[in-house]
Design goal:
205 residues, two-stranded antiparallel sheet, 2 strands, globular
């Protein structure tokens, strides 16, 4: 089981303060992949740039695909650039993988065009694993979910997600996810303003 898989199941199963859009989830899943690849020592961070190590085989198809997509020429890719590049359409890929794992035909309706429907997945080892991490308030999973508006414990009770030797790198990735989500929402707001202005022009006498 991987952090992206667990995050998807949490999004499907736990109420949030706002609808979770495909774009938001895709960015968060890309960040979750980076955190798992960091733990697998597939790369190190120099500042905010991803410096690949020797290729690692994790045994998970999507995570191995992510590792293979790390840019291996200088100047290396920034965390932010990775999130936007790798995140494109990633929610659909993970929903498809979960659908396949659940025997097909069970997850397609979970992914409407713009938002994620929280119809819970069928009980499975994957769901139980995600629930165990969530109920244990696992810091990285909780932090990623919180960035999507899914709250676990009150903020004062949360533990610091950066508890390993790679604490600075974990914080860098989590911060980049938060910044990317903020940027995506800003783009949406600008589009709404532009659309409202256009509508007002047509409605004007």
């Amino acid at each position: 089981m991987t952090t992206p898989q667990d995050l998807l199941i949490v999004v499907l199963d736990v109420p949030s303060s706002r609808p979770v859009g495909q774009g938001d989830l895709s960015l968060a899943l890309a960040g979750a992949e980076l955190l798992d690849l960091l733990e697998a020592q597939a790369f190190t961070l120099e500042g905010d740039r991803l410096v690949p190590s020797a290729e690692r085989v994790t045994g998970d198809r999507l995570l191995d695909e992510a590792g293979a997509q790390l840019i291996r020429q200088e100047p290396y890719e920034t965390v932010e650039d990775w999130l936007w590049r790798r995140g494109r359409g990633l929610a659909s890929a993970y929903v498809g993988a979960l659908e396949e794992a659940e025997g097909g035909g069970k997850a397609r309706h979970w992914l409407p065009r713009r938002t994620i429907d929280r119809t819970p997945p069928a009980d499975s080892p994957a769901r139980r694993h995600a629930s165990e991490r969530w109920n244990a308030h696992e810091p990285v999973l909780v932090s990623l979910a919180a960035a999507l508006g899914i709250q676990d414990t009150p903020p004062a009770e949360r533990t610091d997600p950066a508890t390993s030797a790679d604490a600075d790198a974990v914080e860098t990735v989590l911060a980049a996810v938060g910044d990317a989500l903020t940027e995506l929402e800003a783009v949406r707001q600008r589009r709404r303003i532009e659309e409202d202005a256009f509508d007002n022009v047509w409605r004007a006498p």
